[in-house]
Amino acid sequence: MDRDEITLLSSWLQGRVQLRTDGDEPTISFDQPTAEDFKAQGFGDEAIARTLGASWWKEMVIDIVETPEFAEPEDSPEQILAYARDVVLEYIRKRLFT
């Protein structure tokens, strides 16, 4: 995977992180892509193997969803969403931009 493909992948995954405000507290959901979703977006087998097939993938998903637990009480829902999307960016930077 080249740098441009990794950047595109990161942006696409960040877009799958959503804010939910149907309860008292904001929650974060992550629409986990399947291998077919990756292919539909034009990503190849290498991208699938280096993400869905990686040992860190499940940890990243948990960290995304648990983001509100680590936010400050005064953080707005939009800030919490930004933090959750940053989780994706940090995992991708550490795991794929090496």
Q: Output the strand order for the largest sheet.
A: 1-2
The rounded distance between the terminal residues' Cα atoms is: 11 Å
Number of helices: 6
What fraction, in percent, of the residue positions are helical? 55-70%
Protein model, in words:
There is one protein chain. This protein is mainly alpha-helical. The protein has one domain (3-96). Helix content is 60%, strand content 8%. It has a two-stranded antiparallel sheet with strand order 1-2. Strand 1 and strand 2 (27-30) form a beta hairpin. Helix 1 (3-15) packs antiparallel against helix 6 and helix 4 runs antiparallel to helix 6. The longest helix is centred in the C-terminal third of the chain and has 20 residues, at 77-96.
Question: What labels describe this entry?
Answer:
mainly alpha, about 10% strand, 2 strands, elongated, about 100 residues
Task: Report a brief summary of the structure.
By secondary structure, the protein is mostly helical. It has helices spanning 3-15, 35-40, 45-51, 57-65, 67-70, 77-96; strands spanning 17-20, 27-30.
